[in-house]
Amino acid sequence: MIRVLLVDDQPLIRSGFRALLDVEDDIEVVAEAGDGNEGLALIRKHLPDVALVDIQMPVVDGIEATRRIVEDPALAQVHVVILTNYGFDEYVLDALRAGAAGFLVKDIQPEDFLHAVRVAARGEALLAPAITRKLINRYVTQAQPVAVSGALDALTNRERQALVLVAQGLSNDEIADRLVISPHTAKTHINRAMTKLHVRDRAQLVVVAYESGLVTPRNH
């Protein structure tokens, strides 16, 4: 059973998402909160698999809530998915930096929403290749890469190649085709890169790749 907690200051949004989730046999909504502070308290109490968190809320916003969840070892199982009204807005990159597993636009189709919850519950980053490319484009316009981090030295050549391709928005199957390896092997390289770089998911890999300078606009 996938345990979900909703955090949004708009009751209508919460009730709409809950209505979709409650009819699914494999999903349970364990609680709802109207602001980030209340959400954090309920997340600590219920330990959900997925926390759907609005990015803009009173008291504690979604970015700060995400940061506190990620920094708390007791909440390591909680996968934060950011909810936004505006697609890839100015706050989304900050949320991903804070440790969110991905984000959803609130006008998402119901079937896509349910799929996204299940993806997040499996611990996979909720960033489809098209969304990753939007992340890249926004990042390129907002910041310049800094010096390559020493942490990248721990990566093997294959892991580094896989990381570059993740940051370019390729799916695991596309990475496998590009490197002429199996999808399983591609996923293994990506998972090992996440472990060595101490990041939670694919979204964080994209941020690290750009902020470290491993990937720059000219080789995207």
Automatic annotation (TrEMBL):
Keywords: DNA-binding, Phosphoprotein, Transcription, Transcription regulation. The modification 4-aspartylphosphate is found at D54. This is Response regulator transcription factor. PANTHER family: TRANSCRIPTIONAL REGULATORY PROTEIN NARL-RELATED, TWO-COMPONENT RESPONSE REGULATOR. CDD domains: LuxR_C_like (cd06170), REC_NarL-like (cd17535). Residues 148-213 form the HTH luxR-type domain. InterPro entries: CheY-like_superfamily, NreC/VraR/RcsB-like_REC, Sig_transdc_resp-reg_C-effctor, Sig_transdc_resp-reg_receiver, Tscrpt_reg_LuxR_C, WalR-like. Coiled coil: none annotated. SUPFAM superfamilies: C-terminal effector domain of the bipartite response regulators, CheY-like.
